[in-house]
Design a protein that fits this description.
This protein is α/β, with parallel strands linked by helices and about 180 residues long. The protein has a single domain, classed as Rossmann fold (3-Layer(aba) Sandwich), CATH 3.40.50. Helices cover about 45% and strands about 20% of the residues. It contains 5 helices and 7 strands, in the order ααβαβαββαβββ. A 7-stranded mixed beta sheet has the order 3-2-1-4-5-7-6. Strand 1, helix 3 and strand 2 form a beta-alpha-beta unit. Helix 2 packs across helix 3. Bound molecules: S-adenosylmethionine.
């Protein structure tokens, strides 16, 4: 009997999570579209993260950037992911493959970026435009924003690494 109820509860949870994911995918600002792993590695190299720095991926996806920041660069790496199904995928990556870093199921709009040294974003321009205000309001002087493919609103990048055959542009900002 307990097993039957448990199965029903798990099924309901899965259906609710899938419904939320579908809703976010259709109506959200930035759907889940992971950057290829070779791109993630190159972007992280350009980010020049130092050991012990606070790194945030503000739309973490399956957590690949968080994993690279933590395992390769020794960063204190955290990722926020709004979509429950994608969050679960990130947690599975950690449980099965031992991916590093902290993944939090949250809307980045409600999270503080005050202690961030480096923020990474791979999001649609509309979404980045909204985040610009949050970056300027919360992030400390000297901290960095690394954006893959799209510019962050009207901010002026310190460096622009142009698109090539293998990947899109990388924009690096310093506040
Ligand atoms: C284009 S994907 C990038 C995933 C990952 N950073 C990568 O590059 O492989 C954007 C991700 O941001 C998430 N997202 C969008 N808006 C968000 C928000 N306000 N807070 C947290 N996550 C968000 C989406 O669910 C999606 O997984």
């Amino acid at each position: 009997m307990i097993f039957a109820w448990l199965s029903v509860l798990i099924s309901i949870a899965i259906v609710v999570a899938l419904f939320i994911s579908f809703w976010i995918f259709i109506f959200g600002d930035s759907p889940f579209l992971p950057a290829p792993m070779h791109v993630a590695k190159e972007v992280m190299k350009e980010a020049k993260i130092k050991k012990g720095q606070n790194f945030y991926d503000i739309g973490a996806g399956d957590g690949r950037f968080v994993h690279i920041a933590a395992s390769k660069y020794g960063a204190n790496a955290k990722g926020f992911e709004i979509d429950p199904s994608v969050y679960l995928l990130a947690k599975l990556r950690q449980w099965i493959f031992g991916w590093k870093g902290t993944i939090i199921r949250a809307n980045t709009n409600h999270q503080s970026l005050k202690d961030a040294d480096v923020v990474f974003c791979y999001m649609m321009p509309k979404c980045l435009k909204k985040f610009q205000k949050k970056f300027e309001k919360e992030m400390k002087k000297g901290s960095k924003i690394v954006s893959y493919t799209f510019k962050v609103g009207t901010l002026k990048p310190k460096r622009h690494i142009p698109k090539n055959k293998k990947r899109n542009s990388i924009y690096i900002y310093e506040l």
